[in-house]
């Protein structure tokens, strides 16, 4: 394709891009995807809508063959859904390193998605409400390493640990226990795997350090840095 547009919601707000092949001509934001693309008032070309359409059931190829939408991904058991923007980032990750197999942990403002990737397919996923719980319970960006280690080894005590952290006013301890419980539950996804952590700067340091402490090789990726390879893949298929 030559000139085209892409819009979607990245978990924080609507985003839209005007492109000429793989080159970004303009970018706009808004409360919704529609508001963002309306701000590209002089852009032309077909629109690819991220997050619309019928979700593809896992296991599924990340890059659809064609179509005006990039739907999310759906898992039957255990029930889970990955939104379209997460799928877009996973396309960018696998297209940038096409021979890489492993697990991606994609952080959104409210969710942590663990996704097993192989041969440019999403095989399975496991998602957690940890970021949402950290916000709701008044946790900190910082992670207390002792609390994290305690909940990795004894996740069954999570609720009691959270109460102690609340009473003593230690938000970093609260975050540590929540993250530790997540890592304990996600152990089948990271144990013995190569891990790609996809998260904005400043939100992944505690998680990356915790995984490194478990002997997991981790590479960190800023979501926006994965968009060019995703755009190239989508443009190349004639979307």
Brief account:
This protein has nine helices and 14 strands. The chain has 239 residues and is of the alpha/beta class. The mean pLDDT is 93.
Give a structural overview:
37% of the residues lie in helices and 28% in strands. The chain has helices at 33-38, 84-96, 130-136, 145-153, 158-168, 171-185, 187-190, 205-213, 223-236, and strands at residues 3-9, 14-20, 23-30, 47-50, 56-57, 60-61, 69-70, 73-75, 80-82, 102-107, 112-118, 121-128, 195-198, 218-221. The protein has nine helices and 14 strands. It is globular. The N and C termini lie close together (7 Å). It has 239 residues and is α/β, with parallel strands linked by helices.
Q: Estimate the global geometry from the Cα principal axes.
A: globular
Under the CATH scheme, the architecture of the largest domain is 2-Layer Sandwich
**Assembly type:** single chain
Largest sheet, spatial ordering of strands: 6-12-11-10-13-14
User: How many discrete structural domains?
Assistant: 2
- Secondary structure tally: strands: 14
Classify the secondary structure makeup into a structural class: alpha/beta
The poorly predicted ranges are none
CATH C-level label of the largest domain: Alpha Beta
Overall mean pLDDT: 93
Largest sheet: 6 strands, mixed
Instruction: Give me the CATH fold name of the largest domain.
Output: Nucleotidyltransferase, domain 5
* End-to-end CA span: 7 Å
Q: Could you estimate the helical fraction of the residues in percent?
A: 25-40%
Number of helices: 9
CATH H level, superfamily name of the largest domain = 2-keto-3-deoxy-galactonokinase, C-terminal domain
SSE order, one letter for each helix or strand: EEEHEEEEEEHEEEHHHHHEHEH
Q: Please state the CA-atom Rg, rounded to the nearest Å.
A: 19 Å
């Amino acid at each position: 394709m030559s000139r085209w547009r892409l819009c979607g919601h990245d978990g924080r707000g609507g985003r839209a891009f005007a492109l000429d092949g793989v080159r970004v001509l303009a970018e706009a934001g808004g409360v919704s995807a529609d508001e963002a693309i309306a701000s590209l008032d002089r852009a032309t070309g077909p629109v690819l809508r991220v997050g619309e359409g019928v979700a593809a059931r896992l296991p599924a190829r990340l890059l659809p063959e064609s179509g005006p939408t990039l739907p999310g991904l759906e898992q039957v058991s255990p029930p889970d859904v990955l939104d379209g923007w997460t799928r877009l980032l996973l396309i960018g990750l696998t297209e940038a390193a096409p021979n890489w197999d492993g697990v991606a942990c994609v952080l959104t403002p409210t969710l942590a998605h663990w996704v097993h990737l192989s041969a440019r397919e999403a095989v399975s996923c496991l998602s957690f409400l940890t970021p949402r719980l950290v916000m709701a319970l008044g946790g900190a960006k910082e992670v207390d390493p002792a609390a994290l280690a305690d909940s990795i080894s004894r996740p069954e005590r999570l609720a009691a640990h959270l109460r102690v952290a609340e009473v003593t006013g230690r938000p970093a301890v609260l975050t540590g226990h929540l993250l530790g419980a997540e890592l304990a539950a996600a152990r089948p996804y990271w144990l013995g795997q190569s891990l790609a952590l996809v998260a904005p700067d400043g939100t992944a340091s505690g998680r990356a350090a915790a995984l490194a402490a478990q002997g997991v090789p981790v590479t960190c990726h800023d979501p926006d840095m994965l968009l060019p390879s995703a755009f190239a893949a989508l443009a190349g298929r004639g979307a």
